[in-house]
Specification:
Blueprint (H helix, E strand, L loop, with lengths): L5 E5 L3 H13 L3 E5 L2 H11 L3 E5 L7 H10 L6 E5 L4 H9 L4 E4 L4 H12 L19 E4 L4 E4 L2 E3 L3 H11 L8 H7 L9 H16 L9 E4 L3 E4 L8
Parallel strand pairs: 1-2, 1-3, 3-4, 4-5
Antiparallel strand pairs: 6-7, 7-8, 9-10
Length: 238
Amino acid sequence: METKKRILIVEDEKNIVDIIRFNMNREGYDTLEAYDGETGLALARREKPDLILLDVMLPKMIGFDVCRTLRDEGDNVPVIILTAREEEEDKVLGLELGADDYITKPFSMRELIARVRANIRRTAMSAPAAQTERSAGDALTIDSATGQVYKRGVLIDLTQREYELLTFLAGHPDKVFSRVDLMEQVWNYGFVGDDARTVDVTVRRLREKIEDDPGSPTYVLTRRGVGYYYAAHTAAAP
């Protein structure tokens, strides 16, 4: 029997926690709850949930600091930021700190469930450019067997979303994908609202990790006005 996925809900408003717990349980997920940031961080470390729903404004430790700490410790658990604040910089900050997604309160439970499903799903992105064999001269190595990426032999610490974006693009070298395409293929849900910002920030974070000069990338490139693509000349033959 397949083990149920566990979701950690870190939110200080009990009525919101109760509603989310009820709906997540109904969808077949187990849940853990924390009402402040410190407890949420401790539960994340100890229980290793499959996904975290993380409020921003929390007692003792704000959600941004919880996310930053987990990423600094190498924990790449999917994190969806829950925020009641509409400011663009708050959403961007969450993504810059390594969150996989965000959703703004008030949100519909249908949308939250869709995003939970999409983020908790682990789709194997095996593709021609993501094989385990690479020549010694390759600057970037994607090991699809272990889900790890190396640059000149040094392990790069990518979030799950960054890894999925890289392997998807690398699997279709020189093919340009719009933000809408990427939201559907990598994020696994339709393009809504300002999701373009989610794609842009994730691309920028990925470039900062894999490129020698993020300002002049050689792997993940932009086709102005169209979208993003992985340069075929960087894909080594197995």
